[in-house]
Amino acid sequence: MSTPSGELGLDAARLRAIAASDRPLAPHECAERARQAAALIEPGRLDRSGPGEAVLLWRDEHSEAWLNLWWQPRDTGYHDHTGSCVGVHVIEGRAWNEPLTIGGPPEPREYGPGETFWFPGEGIHRMDHQAGAITIHVYSPPIQAIGHYDLHDGELRRTPVLPDEPSPPSAALYQALHR
CA 15, CA 1: separation in Å to the nearest integer? Predict the structure, then answer.
């Protein structure tokens, strides 16, 4: 799932300096680190073949960062990060963050190049990425597991997903919420 960040020509020392912390990060701190890491990315140097990938930029005891390169549209499905908060910075393209809401209409929020946002560790959400989207996601603490949500025979179910694996779309849940 990941090309080593060194193959992207990124400065490992600068990434370590951005990641440096003696404690887990708050959501807004994750967002700030995502913005700082984005400044190191040169979009013109990225290999745009294939559907895209998530590249691990760093992982230490307090945080981890992923460069998400989606050359085709990418829907993460509804998922949680098992207590890890996230900060996201959009470098290119558009991305939508949609918290799971019940009893009201869905509330997706659209973000474009240069925009940064965060999401709490206890939340359930989905991300939708436009083809060509480039984003950086910083999680704290590092994700131990992902919980994927969908409907099975009308019942909401949470399925564990490995932290380094992408979560699939939540087709049935999406349909039920977007009627």
Answer: 20
User: Which pLDDT tens digit goes with each residue over 128-149?
Assistant: 999 999 999 999 999 999 999 9
Going along the chain from its start, the domains and CATH numbers come out as 5-177 (2.60.120.10)
Per-residue pLDDT tens over the stretch 67-109: 999 999 999 999 999 999 999 999 999 999 999 999 999 999 9
CB contact burial 60-93 (16+ within 10 A = b; e otherwise): eebbbbbbbbbbeebbbbbbbbbebbbbbbbbbb
CA angle 168, 8, 68 (to 5 degrees): 20
**DSSP codes of every residue in 159-179:** EEE-TTSPPPP-HHHHHHHT-
User: What pTM value is reported for the model?
Assistant: 0.93
- In 3D, which of 128, 165, 161 has the Cα closest to residue 147? 161
- 52 Rama sector, left if φ>0, alpha if ψ -120 to 50, beta otherwise: left
